[in-house]
Amino acid sequence: MIAGIIGATGYAGAELVRLLSGHPKIDSLCLSSVSFEGENIEEVYPNFLGRISCKLQKAEDVIAASDVVFSALPHGVGEPFAVACMERKIHYIDLSADFRFDDDEPVYSAWYGKQYKYPQLHKNSIYGLVELNRQKIKSLAEKGAVVIGNPGCYPTGGSLGAFPALAKGLNRAGAPVIVDAVTGVTGGGREPSRSFHYAECADSVSPYKVASHRHSPEIARNLAAMSAVGGNPAPQLIFTPRLAPVNRGILSVIYIPLKEQWCVNVNNVVMPLSSEIEAKTAEIRELYRAFYKDEPFVRILPAGLTAATNRVRQSNYCDISVHIDLNGSTLIVTTAIDNMVKGAAGQAVQNMNVLFGFEEKSGLDAIPALF
Ligand SMILES: NC(=O)c1ccc[n+]([C@@H]2O[C@H](COP(=O)([O-])OP(=O)(O)OC[C@H]3O[C@@H](n4cnc5c(N)ncnc54)[C@H](OP(=O)(O)O)[C@@H]3O)[C@@H](O)[C@H]2O)c1
To answer: Alpha-carbon distance 247 to 306, whole Å?
Structure first.
C-alpha cells in the first residue's frame, strides 16, 4: 500500500514520514512539497539518509499515486486535496483544523477566518479522536472514502484527561473545567517566528494567547461531547496555553471541580493529604483505568507517578495521572503526550489503522524515548 503525504517537509509531515516508513502495511511513500519540489526528502531532513529516499513531487501527483493521503498543511488550504481524494475514493486524513468543526461551520469561521468552499465535503468527514469516535470512524469507512479531521494537540491531551470524569458525571454542574497546558516549540511548526527564536524562548516559560487560543473551541466542544456520553451537561472551559523551551511534548493540568466534596479544610487550615482523600483518589484512578481498559495508547499511572512529557517522547501514548486537591474539592488530572505523535502524526496513523481495519498499534508500538 502507498501512503501519500502532502506537506511532507513540515514538522508534522516529517514525523509522518518517520512513522509510516516503519509501518508494516505501508510499502512505499509518496511525498509532496511546494518549496522543495524535485529535491529528495533526505536532503531536507538528513536524519532520513540511508533509510528513506523519496523525491518530493506536486500534491496532485501524490494523490494520483496513493492509496491513502495525509495532509500536514496549514489551515485553509487542504479542501481541494480532500475533494480530489474523495473523487479517487481514497481516505484523506487532514492534520489541520479544516475538518475538526464540520457540524459547526460558524465556529470554524469565527476562529480560523475562513468559510468552507466545499460544504458537501464536510458531511463526509469525522473528527478523529479515536477514543471518542472509533465506532463512527469504522462505520463511515465501511460505506466508502472518509475525510478525517485529525485532532489538535492541546485538545488531545486536554480532552482525554477529562473524558472519564465527565462521562461518569463526577464534575460539579455549572463549575468550569480548567485546562492549564505547556507545549514544546515544535508545536509552532518549521516556519520561523520571533517568539520561537532561541533567544526569546530559551530559558523561559511564558503563557501565550491567553483567553484567545484557537484550540479553545475544540476543547470545549470535546468536553461537551464527552459529558453527553454520560448524559451530563457540558461544562465551561478555561484554557491557558504556555510555551516551554523543550522540543517535544504537551503537559496538561486539568482541574475538574467535584460534585461530591470532602471539606477537610476547616477554617482555611490546609492539612497534609488525608487518608480519606487518598482513598477517594484511588477509587477515581480505578474508574479511569476501567474506562480506558481497552485503549492501547492511554496509560493510567499508578499512585505516586505524575504524567511527564519525557516518558511519552516519540510515542503515541497519552499518560494520565489522577489526584485530588488537599481540600477534597477538585480532581486534578495531569496528561502528557508528544505533540508530534499522539498530538499529530501518530494519531493520524492511528486513524489510518482504524479506517483500514489494521491492528491499531501497527507502526505505533515503539517504547517512548526517555532521553
Ligand atoms: N506541529 C505540531 O505539533 C502539530 C500538532 C497538531 C497539528 N498540527 C497541524 O499540522 C499542520 C502542519 O503543521 P506543522 O507544524 O508541520 O507546520 P509546518 O512545519 O509549518 O509545515 C507545514 C508545511 O506545509 C507546506 N505549506 C505551507 N503553506 C502552504 C500552502 N499555502 N500551500 C501548500 N503547502 C503549504 C510547507 O511545505 P512546502 O513548502 O515544502 O510545501 C510547510 O513545510 C498544521 O495544520 C498544524 O496546525 C501540527
So the answer is: 20
Q: Is 108 helix (H, G, I), strand (E, B) or coil?
A: helix
pLDDT in tens, 201-220: 999 999 999 999 999 999 99
Q: Considering the candidates 153, 201, 263, 318, report the single residue annotated as catalytic.
A: 153
- Ligand 1 binding site (Cβ under 6 Å of any ligand atom): 7, 9-13, 33-36, 72-75, 77, 95-96, 152-153, 186-187, 189-191, 339-340, 343-344
CA of 74 to the centre of ligand 1 (A): 5
| Domains within the chain, CATH numbers bracketed | 2-151+342-356 (3.40.50.720), 154-339 (3.30.360.10)
Strand partners, 323: 332
Compute the chain's Rg from CA coordinates. Answer: 21
- Is 263 annotated as catalytic? no
Q: Whose CA is nearest to atom 22 of ligand 1?
A: 10
* Separation of alpha carbons 77 and 97, rounded Å: 10
Cell of 226: 464527552
pLDDT over threshold 90, residue 166? yes
The C-alpha atoms of residue 322 and residue 320 are separated, in whole angstroms, by 7
User: Is the sign of the CA dihedral 138, 357, 224, 74 positive or negative?
Assistant: negative
Chain segment 185-200, per-residue pLDDT in tens: 999 999 888 888 999 8
Confidence of residue 261 (pLDDT cuts 50, 70, 90): confident
Q: What is the DSSP letter of 291?
A: H
Task: Give 106: exposed, middle or buried? Use CB within 10 Å, 0-12, 13-18, 19+.
Answer: exposed
Q: What is the pLDDT of residue 256?
A: 97
pTM, rounded to two decimals: 0.97
> What residue's CA is closest to ligand 1, atom 3?
187
Q: Does 265 score more than 90 pLDDT? A: no
Residue with the three cell numbers 485532532? 151
CA of 12 to the centre of ligand 1 (A): 7
